[in-house]
Structures are given as C-alpha cells and as structure tokens.
C-alpha cells in the first residue's frame, strides 16, 4: 500500500512519518522548496531566519514526550526569552528548532520520499486509487491513500469529487499575517520578544537571540491580523516600509535598521477551528489534517497529524 501526503508542515510530516514507520510507502509533496509550513525558515548570508512561528509551546503529555525525543537529537532547544507584553502561559518557556525552525520537520522527513517545489492542484479517482496532478496538469502518479495537510481554504478546491467532505471545511476561518524581517547595523537594547508594542504589530522577535543563531541584530516583525487583512494585496516593498516605520515609531533606537525581506502568510492563523482532530473517510481513502482542525498552534498541527495517522492505521496507540 502507498500514500500521498500533500503539505509538509508539522501535521503533514507527522502523519507521513507514522505511516512510513507502519510500512506504508509515503510520498510527501509541498509547493515550497523545503518542509516546515508554519515552521518555515529562510537562509540569509549563512544564517537562518525563522519567518513563520518564532517559537512554540506544549501542553499535552504526548507532545511533551515527542519534544523530549527531539531535544535528545539536538534539532530542538528550549528557550526562555525575555518577553515584554502580555503572553500565554506556555510562552514563558518555549521551544525552537536548531539551527532553524524547520530542523524539526526535516528530521522527521528522513525516511520519507519528499518532493518539494511541487504544487498539487487536482485529484482524480482512478478506480480504487487516487491520481494527483501538478499545476501543469501533468500526472504525478497514483496512490491508494491521499492525505491533505493544507490550510482548509487550499484543501477545499482539491475536493471537487467529494463535495460533502469539502462542505465540512466551510466553517473553518483563517487569518492572514504579513511578516517583515529587519536587521540593525548596531546592537539595540530590546527584549527578545515584544507583544503588542505597536497597534499594527502583533509581535517582534529577536531571531538572533535564539539558540544556535549566529548573525546578530535580526528581528522578525509580525503585523496584526486586522492590518494584514487591510493590506493583503499590497506589494511587499510597500509593506516592508510601512512595518519598518511602525517599529521606528515605538523603538527609535532601531533607526539604522534595514529591511531584509517580507513574507505574506495568507492563511497565517486559525480564527475558527473545525472542532475535531482530523477528517478521515475510510471508504474513499482520503483524509485531512492541520492545525486548523483544533486551533492555531504547532502542537495542534502535530496532534491533528497524529490523530489522522491513528485513524488510517486503525491503531489508537500509534505515536512518534
């Protein structure tokens, strides 16, 4: 038996790894050049910048156990940042990938056949199997199972052959987030993390303060949901200049900063979750998972992928 998993964020790599370990040949696709999803990182002059989730916490015992294993393998580190602003309890002590956020997903991918830079745009039934097509409408192959680990709005168009399943995603609402990465020429006395420093800035993270980072003075600015929505289609260059000004408005010592790059997360956060851990239609051999099933956190994505794997395998004890 074989399976195709579409989406190489935390949910996708979790379900892919568990199925692979159970003896199912898995092919994992992602439209990006690498894995990570919300744990995305970009290389910049020899160092790594995390422009997705800057860090994450853990609440469930199963996720704590998983993270302890990753700590032992040196792809994860604990981080206790100096934080300014109101934060959730699980952000007081958190985790980061080393030397980049996506190190966690890359480690999980080791035994899985991964095809990056491949956008899956269509699914088609072929008897009891599923055919996948790319954005050039070329056939990628056929598989016994298909599991979609994509944001709900991206998954829905792929479910044209299963309208009842697609309808279940209608209640899920996602929110955008613009990110601008800055670098200061000289050290600036700022907290590691600032929450709500400006009405239009959700969070400012000192990327260079994380374990395993070398380049100094790199800050990741996340815009607020409302501002991101109102400026969703503006050019990145204009977004960067506006967000830089927001930073200068609240942190004048950063005046010598320069913009490195901007990134738009069209589906950055979950506003309204599905309310169940995953979706699995055994008769059709198709399933969906993602943080949006349960919430908006990295842990939610992991739990969703874990639960989908358990349903596919019929094994409630399966775990990483």
Automatic annotation (TrEMBL):
Pfam families: Amino_oxidase, NAD_binding_8. Residues 104-313 form the Amine oxidase domain. InterPro entries: Amino_oxidase (IPR002937), FAD/NAD-bd_sf (IPR036188). GO terms for molecular function: oxidoreductase activity. It comes from the Bacteria. This is Amine oxidase domain-containing protein. It comes from Desulfuromonas thiophila.
């Amino acid at each position: 038996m074989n399976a195709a998993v579409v989406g190489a964020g935390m949910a996708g790599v979790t379900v892919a790894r568990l199925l692979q370990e159970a003896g199912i040949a898995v092919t994992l696709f992602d439209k990006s050049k690498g894995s990570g999803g919300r744990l995305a990182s970009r290389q910049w002059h020899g160092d790594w910048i995390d422009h997705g989730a800057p860090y994450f916490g853990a609440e469930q015992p199963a996720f704590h156990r998983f993270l302890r294993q990753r700590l032992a393998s040196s792809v994860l580190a604990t981080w206790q940042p100096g934080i300014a602003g109101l934060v959730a309890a699980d952000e007081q002590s958190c985790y980061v990938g080393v030397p980049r956020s996506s190190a966690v997903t890359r480690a999980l991918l080791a035994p899985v056949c991964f095809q990056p830079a491949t956008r899956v745009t269509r699914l088609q039934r072929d008897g009891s199997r599923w055919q996948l097509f790319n954005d050039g409408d070329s056939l990628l192959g056929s598989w016994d199972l298909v599991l979609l680990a994509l944001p709900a709005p991206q998954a829905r168009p792929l479910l044209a052959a299963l309208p009842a399943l697609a309808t279940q995603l209608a209640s899920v609402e996602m929110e955008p987030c613009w990110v601008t990465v800055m670098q200061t020429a000289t050290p600036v006395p700022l907290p590691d993390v600032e929450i709500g420093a400006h009405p239009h800035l959700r969070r400012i993270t000192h990327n260079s303060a994380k374990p395993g980072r070398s380049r100094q003075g790199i800050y990741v600015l996340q815009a607020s949901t409302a501002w991101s929505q109102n400026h969703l289609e503006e050019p990145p260059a204009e977004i960067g200049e506006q967000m830089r000004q927001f930073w200068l408005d609240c942190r004048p010592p950063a005046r010598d900063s320069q913009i490195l790059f901007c990134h738009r997360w069209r589906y950055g956060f979950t506003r309204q979750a599905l309310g169940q851990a995953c979706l699995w239609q055994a008769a059709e051999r198709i399933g969906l998972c993602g943080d949006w099933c349960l919430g908006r956190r990295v842990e939610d994505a992991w739990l969703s992928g874990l639960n989908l794997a358990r349903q596919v395998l019929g094994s409630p004890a399966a775990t990483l």
